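Tutorial, part two.
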Amino acid sequence: MTEFGSLVGEQMGSYFGSAVAVTDLNGDRLDDIIVGAPFYADYKSLTAFDNGRVYIFYQTSDKKFRPQRRDILDGPDSESRFGMAVSGLRDINYDGFEDLCVGAPYAGEDKRGAIYIYHGSKRGIITDVSQVIYAKDVSPTLSGFGISISGGIDQDGNSYPDILTGAYSSDSAVFFRTRPVVRVIASLKINPDILDLEVKECQLPDGTKITCFNLISCLTYDGYGVPDYLTLNSTVVFDVKSNTSGSQEQRVFLMQAPTKYTKQDIYRLTARNPSCITTHAYLKNDPDDKLSPIKITLTFTLMEDPDRALRPILDAYIPVATSITTQIKKDCGIDNVCVPNLSVQLYGVTPTHIIGNPGILEILVIVNNFGEDSFNTRLWIDLPPGVAYNTIISQKSSVPISCGNFNQTLVVCDLGNPFKQKSQPSDFTLVLTPTNTNDTKDELIVNFFANSSNEEKSNDYENNYAKGVIPVTAVAEIALLGKSSPEFIILNITEHKGEEDGSRIVKHVFQLINQGQCATNETELQIRWPSYDKNGNPVLPLEAPLIIEGNGKCDTIVITPSNAQKYDKSTYIEKETDRNKRNTDSQTISCSEKYCTIIQCLVGHMLPRDNFIVTVVSQFKPKSFIQRREETQMYNIKSIARARVRSVPYDFKTVDVSKFETRKIELVTTVNTDRLKPASKGVEIWIIALAVTAGLLMLLLLILLLWWCGFFKRKKPEEEGYFVVNGKSNIDDKIVD
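Running the prediction step on this input gives:
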């Protein structure tokens, strides 16, 4: 005996070599060595021990066993003592490679043992176990099952090697007969192989013309020691959806059951003789998904025959399903693969959006396809915050366009299925409605992206995108209203010359209104109040506090010759360009350069329709006023207010506060100093009575004169010299007296 070498275990106490078997697991006609180490423990685990391990060493062409070229099988359970017995089984499934059985006498939940069957392959042992037989599955009394194994001998004459296993704790041995392995071959064929939606050769019971096809499914079987006949169950599923498929539309149905898309059949086969079944199916008209392949699968199972003593089993390494795919015919050339080239262009974008303006926003959209047919073509529109989809108008397209909300900010438009190559562009106007754009920055950006189910060339995607930009601005619109109370003061100079008092309250009310659609942040209101005339004489001095209603505050500055230089007129909202005209007009009393009361107000944040009201209250003293005026003069006492927005609560580059308009209003209280002078003496009563009596007498005389002249006497028709015949007058029948 010649020693080729030695193999040493890797863990002390693992009982490496307590069980050894020799067989050819990789089919190279060289014996491989299987070594058991049933007490091997995984020290990384604190609770697992005596798991067991099996080593497979492969012989090389130079008849060496190198430790580096090996496979390892680990026991699945603690204390199972996996590898206590190992045995070659020869080729139990007739795949050309010998197989292995490993015993673990304390495996399983009940620790009564199990045996593990592994198959060989060209690359060596398949480390995934093929079959596990537990003691509890064989008999409730077995224990220590798998302590010893003997295999590789056909005991029942069915051409398959069998297995004999010992169960020492129950004084038993179990004989396992190997079941014949059946290899089933399945095939599918579709006729026609491409489905043309334009060809409608079949008809549904309701008369609908549809595209139909035939599916031919065939099964056959063979194997060593297999029965002469077998029965298989099959299931066909049409238009199977993959997990990654976006569309869940069912496109194919059975002709015999127009609402079903699965079919079950029974095949009764004889060995090595194929059996085929033809199934009639149809493709529904105008499916949404015309691009995805139509997949059809056939699965089969072996029908159990209770009369057989040893029933066969399907080969575990041959799939029990097969599939075939077909396509819907497309106008995409010989390869039937469509490569579109979509392009998005924008025109007619709304030039500007004013904050608060509820008016619609419009964007003209044009989508072209410069490539081959595009399927499930969609235009995705990403809206900015504060803007909502309204509708589309002015459609111009070869197919109807439909748009709707995908979610709160995303709109999707269907452009056609298919969107034909080089067809009329999809042209429409997108209408949007601003809902709340107060938080918007300088622009409203609307992003557009067109795509389809079929992919484009990588360098063609750039023109699938487009961006619509609508500048945002704010326009402040304020109104300045006012009312004077009273509007007229009528004085009797004679009566007031001796009065000591007789003052009258004069009120001018100024109302600032935000009548625009956006808020204002700061607004300046200036009131020029005529407390004194140009000579410094009191006119309407302020003797009561201002009455302020609204968000703002006011300061009062009284300008006199002593401080006129201190207040630069540039601080006013607007210079008084008509000052000279007013000063030379003796009937108008208003502010002058030397004497003026300036009421300067700074109004805070105002929402649309908010108000700010200032009421100026003064005392008008007639006596002091009359003493310095001409007796017959009428005077207009005028206050002037101006307002201008200084800032808005929006940080827009497009907002130019200097261009906001200044509002102006003039309120006048008119003083009339002569309308109440004593009136002229009236007409005496006796004169009025005499005049009335004379008038009546003259009327009576006129009536008598007319009566005497025959004015009130009427003549009869026959006295006029006419004769009426048969109801008609005739000039020839006139009789002259």
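The two ends are 189 Å apart (CA to CA). In part three we will examine how such features are distributed along the chain.
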